[in-house]
Amino acid sequence: MGLEAGEVFVHRNIANLVPTIDLNVMSVINYAVRHLNVKHIIVCGHYNCGGVKAALTSTDLGLLNPWLRNIRDVYRLHEKELDAIADEKARFNRLVELNVIESCRNVIKTAEVQQSYQERQFPIVHGWVFDLQDGLLRDLEIDFHEMLREIKKIYNLA
Ligand SMILES: [Zn+2]
């Protein structure tokens, strides 16, 4: 990313999820927006993600089941599009992208992001996917303003 050490405040978890009841990720967003005044929030996934792959398999993974169910929910939301992709790897990669986009939505659903944007016009939320094969970061170019507008119809907290 061409940035100095410490310039990015990072939170990591399995399959870059932003569950609304996860106190860790919610605290990170709160701190980053309200105290660090970050201008950008990036949800960064990666192709060939083991978490997403696990969600695509019919296996009981114990404690991981509720976490991975978030990804199965993303599949259900985009079932038509995903089922239309014949190639298994391409379908897997698309689910990785859709999961990033859904996590972006979950970031935008927070009061912190909505209120800060209303008052200060930041942060802007971005969805990226890292490809371990070529080492490149791919910007999914989500339309933040349109996504915010759509979300506020039902999830408005500002
Ligand atoms: Zn992963």
Automatic annotation (TrEMBL):
The organism's place on the tree of life at top rank: Eukaryota
Keyword Acetylation: no
First-tier enzyme category under EC: lyase
UniProtKB keywords: Lyase, Metal-binding, Zinc
Entries under SMART domains matching the protein: Pro_CA
Cofactor(s) annotated in UniProt: Zn(2+)
Cofactor binding: number and manner: Binds 1 zinc ion per subunit.
CDD domains registered for this protein in UniProt: beta_CA_cladeA
Positions bound to Zn(2+): H46, C49
GO terms under cellular component: cytoplasm
Pfam families linked to this entry: Pro_CA (PF00484)
Catalytic activity: hydrogencarbonate + H(+) = CO2 + H2O
Molecular-function GO terms, alphabetical: carbonate dehydratase activity; zinc ion binding
EC number: 4.2.1.1
A GO BP entry: cellular response to oxidative stress
UniProt key word Lyase: yes
Stated role: Reversible hydration of carbon dioxide.
Family: Belongs to the beta-class carbonic anhydrase family.
Name the record gives this protein: Carbonic anhydrase
The species this protein was found in: Penicilliopsis zonata CBS 506.65
